[in-house]
Each structure stands twice: as C-alpha cells, then as structure tokens.
C-alpha cells in the first residue's frame, strides 16, 4: 500500500525555507501532478519523498511507515528525471538491468523484467543500442523502463517530457497515463505544462513560494480557482 502523507513538511537551505509546512494526503495509486513557477519547491518536495534530500521538519509517511530517516535505497520508489540520466557507456538493456543486478536479482528474472518492460514501452528493437544512438523520446522510454523494472510502489517523475517536442509529448502523455493504469503504483508528477496537468492528473497541486495554494481535481481547479494566481496557472495558455 503506497498512500503518501506529507505532514507539515519543511525544507530549509541555511536561512532559506524553500518548502513551508506542506500538508498533502495522496491515496494509493493516485496520479498527483505538482505545478507552479520555477523555484517554487516542486523538485525539492519530490527529492525529499525519494530520500535524495534530507527533511528539515515535519513527517513523510508512506503506507504506515514514517520514512524521514529511511535511506533512499531502502525506499520502494523510482524517480524519472527530465534529463533521463542514462549511463552513456551501457546499452539500453544494461541501463534497464543495472539496478536489479546491483540488488543481486537472478539473471533470468532480470531478463524477464527487462523484456517485459521493453515490450510495453516498444523499445525491444533498441535493447542493444547505446543512449547516444537514440532519439529524445526513445531515451525517455528507456528512463521509464529503468524505473519500471524495479516495480516500485511509488513513481516520481520530474518534468519527464519537457525536453521533447510537442508531438512526442502528446504521445508520451498517453503512454504514461496507460502505464499508470497498468502498474498499480502511486504517481507524483511535476510539470509546467498545463495540458499535461489537466489531462493526466487525478488531482493537481498548485504551489507558489514553497506553499500549496490549492489542490483539487483538474475540473474543480478550472471551475473554482481560489485566486488569480491559480486561475492564471490553470486557465491561461502558457
Ligand atoms: P522547482 O523544482 O519548483 O523549480 P526547486 O525545488 O528546484 O524548485 O527549488 C526551490 C528553491 O530551492 C529554489 O529557490 C532553489 O534555488 C532552492 N534550492 C534547491 N536546491 C538547493 C540547494 N541544494 N541549495 C540551496 N538552495 C537550493
Ligand atoms: Mg524542478
């Protein structure tokens, strides 16, 4: 069970508070999208959930467990970044298998998982290539595949499509929505693309200056924004 609770979550860097008392209850298997201007604390929030950034105050609870001090490697979470972060010297197959190899999974199990993920993502024909021989969209599929083979309870995606052209973004939006339905995982997805937020999210969380301004379903946010900031972020084309 991967419900996620953030209770008065805070992050400070020195004297600077970049995430202020965030309260957020995310249901198991929900698709949450975080939006807000650059620098408002979206990535920092994801990184605290992933264990890549220490929590300065408050509580992070996943399922029934307090996670504040659990090391990143012991969290059942996979994160996909904007810049893919693939290993350049490894083939696509190896990029996807590597995390499982580190965990000493049996070879046949690794192979089964890599082949299965590659099939779903339509990259089977690319398994022997190196990342530099792939297009942006293909690289992003590999990054998703690398997260999928771990079969995590929680997927964190930080602007995963922002380096892709508009047409490919459309295709990948649909792919990621399909993936969410198929994977039985909770998704938290950061974007500044309004179409992504409105079409993919169960609920959208609008952040500004480290605070949550409003959170609701796309329809309710669109119909009843609480202030001009939210209205501007949700309603207007960007
Ligand atoms: P977003 O993802 O919404 O664009 P971030 O979470 O990356 O925003 O950053 C939020 C704020 O925290 C920004 O003001 C950023 O400069 C600051 N910040 C992020 N990481 C660090 C760090 N390691 N040290 C100091 N300040 C940081
Ligand atoms: Mg960011």
Explained architecture:
With 238 residues, the chain is of the alpha/beta class. It has 8 helices and 10 strands. It has a 6-stranded mixed sheet with strand order 6-7-8-3-9-10, with helices on both faces. Helix 2 crosses helix 3 (107-121), helix 2 (92-102) packs parallel to helix 4 and helix 3 crosses helix 4.
Please render the helix and strand layout as text.
Elements (H helix, E strand, L loop, with lengths): L3 E10 L2 E11 L4 E5 L6 H9 L6 E6 L2 E2 L10 E4 L11 H11 L4 H15 L14 H13 L5 E5 L7 H18 L2 E5 L3 H7 L2 E6 L2 E6 L1 H6 L4 H8 L3
Parallel strand pairs: 3-8, 3-9, 6-7, 7-8
Antiparallel strand pairs: 1-2, 1-4, 4-5, 9-10
Helix pairs in contact: 2-3, 2-4, 3-4
Bound molecules: adenosine-5'-diphosphate and magnesium ion (MG).
Magnesium ion (MG) binds next to helix 1.
Protein name: ABC transporter ATP-binding protein
Subcellular location: Cell inner membrane
Organism: Rhizobium lemnae
Judged by helices, strands and strand pairing, the structural class is alpha/beta
- The coarse overall form would be globular
Low-confidence segments, ≥5 residues, pLDDT <50? none
Side by side, the strands of the main sheet go 6-7-8-3-9-10
Bound chemical compounds: adenosine-5'-diphosphate, magnesium ion
- Strand proportion, as a percent range, falls in 25-35%
Could you estimate the helical fraction of the residues in percent?
A: 25-40%
Radius of gyration: 18 Å
Counting DSSP H or I runs of 4 or more residues, the number of helices is 8
Query: How many E strands?
Result: 10
Largest sheet: 6 strands, mixed
* N- and C-termini, Cα separation: 36 Å
Mean pLDDT: 92
Order of helices and strands: EEEHEEEHHHEHEHEEHH
Subcellular location: Cell inner membrane
Membrane topology: Peripheral membrane protein
Main location: membrane
Domain ABC transporter: 4-234
């Amino acid at each position: 069970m991967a419900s996620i609770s953030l209770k008065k979550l805070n992050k400070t860097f020195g004297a600077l508070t970049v995430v202020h008392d965030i309260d957020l209850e995310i249901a198991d298997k929900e698709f949450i999208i975080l939006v807000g201007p650059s620098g408002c604390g979206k990535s920092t929030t994801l990184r605290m959930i992933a264990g890549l950034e220490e929590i300065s105050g408050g509580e992070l609870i996943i399922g029934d467990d307090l996670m504040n001090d659990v090391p990143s490697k012991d969290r059942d979470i996979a994160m996909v970044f904007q810049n893919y972060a693939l290993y350049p010297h490894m083939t696509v197959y190896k990029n996807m298998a590597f995390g499982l190899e580190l965990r000493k999974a049996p070879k046949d199990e690794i192979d089964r998982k890599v082949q299965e993920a590659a099939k779903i993502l339509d990259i089977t024909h690319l398994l022997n290539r190196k990342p530099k021989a792939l297009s942006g969209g293909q690289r992003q599929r590999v990054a998703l595949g690398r997260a999928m083979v771990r079969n995590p309870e929680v997927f964190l995606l930080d602007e995963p499509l922002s380096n892709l052209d508009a047409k490919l973004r459309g295709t990948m939006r649909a792919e990621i929505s399909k993936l969410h339905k198929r994977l039985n995982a909770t998704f938290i997805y950061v974007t500044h693309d309004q179409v992504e937020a409105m079409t993919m999210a169960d609920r959208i969380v609008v952040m500004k200056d480290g605070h949550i301004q409003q959170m609701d379903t796309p329809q309710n946010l669109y119909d009843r924004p609480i202030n001009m900031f939210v209205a501007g972020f949700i309603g207007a084309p960007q």
